């Protein structure tokens, strides 16, 4: 690599320690190692999409590297340069879990992005509270089973109800669980995670959000209604200000010892479990982990009935999917832009990041989970081994549900969020809200082109490896 001629390499990222912190840290080390000058620009998440799209549509893109959510790739892909073969064939790409590498870096059968963060939802619980003899006796008397980490949403709701209001180790009343309910606070992915187990039938892959044959929205079916109804009912097991919780509040309050459980991205494990360094956790050494709860039933979209499964089944959900790095095709420094992204996402540097609870970067490489020693040093042996076990199990599960990903993504999400606002305000029922959102999705699909959206949705859900001939390009 040689220093860029003229202007420095321009990188755009968000203005927080999450994602923005690693981008800056590794930009400095990249510049020191290569002599390539980097100018890092930051903006708020709420302005990031518009700032990028404005640059593309006006042909005035001032950046060489963009760090974006993976769900935005369909909208930006026409303006991007593909990942070069020299990076695709090396460990920077080959060491990424297939669920991220094969699903989220591609668009229209071309690798257009580099994964820099791997996202999924999992659960955390307080081992000290679950081990308390008095609590165990009371729980067994109330529910007729031992108090243990939940494997189904039904068990999860029972545990949340049991601990809600009970005194914690500090004598203060506990929340039974913590989830995000604030608009703009990642609540949409919490709803999706509740729906994953109910709406991913083993005989009908890819039908979580739409019928992949007709593109009829699936979000109004009974699986979704059950998920939303249960998600809303869990507010009663949360704190008084539950409606204002975002994911950041979920993990920080859990780390402060204010709840028996939470659902969150893998950040909770590092923030709540860390024995030293960073913000002190009130529950360090007492945290256990569980895979996203599952169900003994799943909605069958063909028969329009509930099917009983042979055993409870957990479905991993790639909530948000993670962040990716992309390079605009208009860049005059494309090679150096990809060099910087490869440096940022390298196994060595990314392993440093996943051990930092403020980085916003969650594990996405087998190599990051292979050596337990750094994790044991950070979390202690029991916490670390449990954390790694749940992550490995989730990332290699038989059923892994992909997040929604197609052109117009933000419009689809906004339409659903609008109806969630009405449901949470008590204006309409969960069933009516989802039905209204489904109507909005139908209109969006018609406006964007049903056949084109069908092709893109099927590819995003892993149902087609390549676009049919004649597909819009």
TrEMBL record:
SUPFAM superfamilies attached to this UniProt entry: Periplasmic binding protein-like II (SSF53850)
Similarity remark: Belongs to the bacterial solute-binding protein 1 family.
Keyword Ubl conjugation set for record: no
Compartment(s) where it occurs, according to its Swiss-Prot or TrEMBL record: Periplasm
Keyword Secreted set for record: no
Top-level taxonomic group: Bacteria
A GO CC term assigned to this protein in UniProt: periplasmic space
InterPro entries: Bact_solute-bd_prot1, SBP
UniProt KW keywords: Signal, Transport
Species for this entry: Thiorhodococcus drewsii AZ1
Protein name per its UniProtKB record: Extracellular solute-binding protein family 1
């Amino acid at each position: 690599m040689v220093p860029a001629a003229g202007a420095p390499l321009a990188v755009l990222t968000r203005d927080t320690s999450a994602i923005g912190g690693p981008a800056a840290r590794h930009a400095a080390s990249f510049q020191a190692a290569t002599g390539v000058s980097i100018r890092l620009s930051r903006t708020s998440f709420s302005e990031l999409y518009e700032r990028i799209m404005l640059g593309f549509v006006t042909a005035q893109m001032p950046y060489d590297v963009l760090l974006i959510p993976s769900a935005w790739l369909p909208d930006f892909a026409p303006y991007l340069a593909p990942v070069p073969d020299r990076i695709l064939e090396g460990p920077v790409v080959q060491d990424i879990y297939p669920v991220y590498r094969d699903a989220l870096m591609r668009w229209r059968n071309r690798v257009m992005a580099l994964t820099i963060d791997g996202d999924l939802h999992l659960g955390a619980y307080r081992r000290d509270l679950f081990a308390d003899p008095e609590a165990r006796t009371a729980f067994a008397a109330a529910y007729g089973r031992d108090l243990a980490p939940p494997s189904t949403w039904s068990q999860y709701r029972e545990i949340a109800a049991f601990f809600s209001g009970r005194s914690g180790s500090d004598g203060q009343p506990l929340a039974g669980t913590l989830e995000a309910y604030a608009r703009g606070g990642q609540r949409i992915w919490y709803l999706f995670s509740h729906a994953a187990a109910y709406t991913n039938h083993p005989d009908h892959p890819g039908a979580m959000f739409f019928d992949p044959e007709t593109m009829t929205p699936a979000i109004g079916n009974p699986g979704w209604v059950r998920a939303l109804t249960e998600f809303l009912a869990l507010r009663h097991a949360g704190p008084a200000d539950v409606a204002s919780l975002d994911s950041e509040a979920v993990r920080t309050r859990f780390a402060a010892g204010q709840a028996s459980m939470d659902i969150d991205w893998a950040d909770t494990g590092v923030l709540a479990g860390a024995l030293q360094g960073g913000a002190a956790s009130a529950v360090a050494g007492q945290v256990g982990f569980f895979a996203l709860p599952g169900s003994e039933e799943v909605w069958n979209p063909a028969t329009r009935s509930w099917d009983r499964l042979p055993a409870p089944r957990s479905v991993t959900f790639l909530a948000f999917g993670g962040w990716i790095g992309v390079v605009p095709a208009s860049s005059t420094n494309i090679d150096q832009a990809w060099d910087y992204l490869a440096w940022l996402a390298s196994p060595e540097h990314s392993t440093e990041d996943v051990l930092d609870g403020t980085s916003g970067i969650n594990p996405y490489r087998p190599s990051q989970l292979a050596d337990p020693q750094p994790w044991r040093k950070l979390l202690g042996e029991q916490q670390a081994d449990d954390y790694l076990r749940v992550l490995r199990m989730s990332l290699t599960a038989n059923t892994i549900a992909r997040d929604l990903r197609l052109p117009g993504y933000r419009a689809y999400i906004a339409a659903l969020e609008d109806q969630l606002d009405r449901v949470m305000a008590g204006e309409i029922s969960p069933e009516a809200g989802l039905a209204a959102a489904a109507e909005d999705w139908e209109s969006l699909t018609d406006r964007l082109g049903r056949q084109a959206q069908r092709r893109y949705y099927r590819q995003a859900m892993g149902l087609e490896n390549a676009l049919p001939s004649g597909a819009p390009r």
